[in-house]
Amino acid sequence: MLRRKKDEVLELPGKIRSWVPISVESAAVLNASDHSLSGSPDRMHPGQTTRTFLARLTKVRVALHKAKHRAVEERIHDVVATDRK
């Protein structure tokens, strides 16, 4: 077996990374600041359990995932429509 590294065999261009802003319109994310999701479970409101904190955090994560999915889908459609790689 002969092992080679990519940079020794291929001349690939550098990766192009860009930030693409997305809009999140889910109520779970918009209300996150009201429910102190930006902190940790150690700094919860009185009466809030770790389970409710994690449930709200999961709702926010799902909403962000959906927003990212829509943004990626739009970008893929744009790239396919222009015949770019």
Task: Outline the structure in words.
By secondary structure, the chain is mostly helical. The protein has one domain. Helices cover 47% and strands 0% of the residues. The protein contains 3 helices and no strands.
Structural class: mainly alpha
Report the span from N to C terminus.
33 Å
Q: Which stretches are poorly predicted, pLDDT < 50 over at least 5 residues?
A: none
Overall pLDDT score: 77
The count of domains is 1
Main sheet record = none
Cα-atom radius of gyration: 21 Å
Query: What percentage of residues falls in helices of 4 or more residues?
Result: 40-55%
Number of strands: 0
The count of helical stretches stands at: 3
Order of secondary-structure elements: HHH
Percent strand: under 5%
Note the overall shape. Answer: elongated
Features:
85 residues; mainly alpha; elongated
Give the SSE layout.
Layout: H1 6-9, H2 27-30, H3 50-81
In short:
Helices cover 47% and strands 0% of the residues. It is mainly α. The protein has one domain.
